[in-house]
Amino acid sequence: MTEVNLRPSPGVGSGPPPSIAPDSTHGYIAEASGLVMRVELAQGKFDGLTSSYSGVRGVLVSPDGKFLYIYSPYGLFGDAAQRGQIVPYDATSTTPTHGADTLGYGTYAVAASPDGRYVVAASSGYDAAGRPLSQGSVTIIDTRDFSFSPVTVPGGRGTIAFSADGRFLFVADAAGLVTKVDIAHHTALITVRAGGGWLYRSADPEVMYVTDGRTGGAAIDVRTGQVLRPVSLSG
Question: Does residue 3 lie in a domain region?
Fold first, then answer.
């Protein structure tokens, strides 16, 4: 069994922690009230940016630092359909570049491809009342024209992670199912049971780790989507 020491990876989405800009000078924190806070990390200075949306769960900074993506699990306007929504913002002027668009139920995590062309939002697998849905989904957003392509995946809440080259997305759920998705063709390719819901990139671009966050998990072959070997956690 391989022992690994895992740290957060770029291109990985797992929920609403602060999003740090690429130059590491500042970050963003989103509040449910609709307030998005820009934090200057060196001075500890906070600037509030009013997004005009309620129910915000998190904010994602694009890899080039030019755009922010503010998202909500069940609608930024208290949407009657109770579906998640996402709005792109210009990071310099803090103004929307596109209107709010609808995602799957219970949008839980978002992540950007390494080149910033694609943003992916994953549903939690639960509706607004906490009832489990029969299947989950990921929505692939092409940021060039903000077009949406939903892809059905099994399972529910977990994490998502892009491969190092941005060609594939891996979706893990709390039950330990991991699905490999072809980004360009908007297709789920393979689902395997790997024993964990937390995804991490390894130093090897051909390997993705999935763990239970406590004791261990598995190494996934990025090319095939198959489990390579079990891993245990250290540190």
Answer: no
pLDDT at 15 over 50: no
Q: Is residue 32 part of a domain?
A: yes
Structural domain contains residue 191 = yes
Residue 214 lies in a domain: yes
Q: d(Cα 143, Cα 117) in Å, to the nearest integer? A: 5
pLDDT in tens, 93-124: 667 777 666 666 667 788 999 999 999 988 76
| CATH code of the domain containing 122 | 2.130.10.10
Amino acid at 203: A
Write the single-letter amino acid at 223: R
Is the whole model's pTM more than 0.85, yes or no?
no
